[in-house]
Amino acid sequence: MHDAWSITANVALIVLGIAALQGLIWIPIIMWLRRKRRAANAALATALESETVVRSPEKGIYRGATAPGYPGVNNNGVIALTAHRLVFTTVTGRMIDIPTSEITGVREAKTFKGAVRGGRTHLIVQTRSGEIGFYVPNVGDWINAIRTVGSAQPT
User: Fold this and answer.
1) Is residue 18 domain-resident?
2) For residue range 16-55, what is the model confidence (pLDDT) as tens digits?
3) Would residue 21 be called left, alpha or beta, if left means φ above 0 and alpha means ψ between -120 and 50 degrees?
4) Which residue range(s) make up the domain with 131?
5) How many structural domains comprise the chain?
6) What is the gyration radius of the CA atoms in the chain, in angstroms?
7) Which of 8, 97, 131, 150 is the least buried, fewest Cβ under 10 Å from its Cβ?
8) Residue 116 located in a structural domain
9) What is the pTM of this model?
10) Contact 71/64 with Cβ under 8 angstroms?
11) How many CB atoms lie within 10 A of CB 71?
């Protein structure tokens, strides 16, 4: 009986040690990401102060691009639309700008760059040089908003 209790106690100590180690690793990372996200949101708010906002900033996910000059890595962040640009700020602070004058079309798609995720629908922004994909809360509303400010035609 003493041996069973000893084994249980050792397992519990190991589990607690692993949990403590995980906490020591992840808590600073999470705090750093939150600071970066707040700074990125503040930078976006500052950038939008002098522009006419068509769609206010909201959470979104950047899904990559086939257009050159845009990041290839997916990232969470905040997306907004002004009369002059579609802007996405990643949680790590990178700002992705798409001038509305460069937008040639906009559409929705279940797949983008060969990826499907949980049945979600991509917002695909088409430019002269390629496409840029996002997940946004309401794809239809975003499509309509982009069509009102850009040269994007229904596709």
Assistant:
1) no
2) 999 999 999 999 988 988 888 888 888 888 888 888 899 9
3) alpha
4) 38-154
5) 1
6) 22
7) 8
8) yes
9) 0.77
10) yes
11) 14
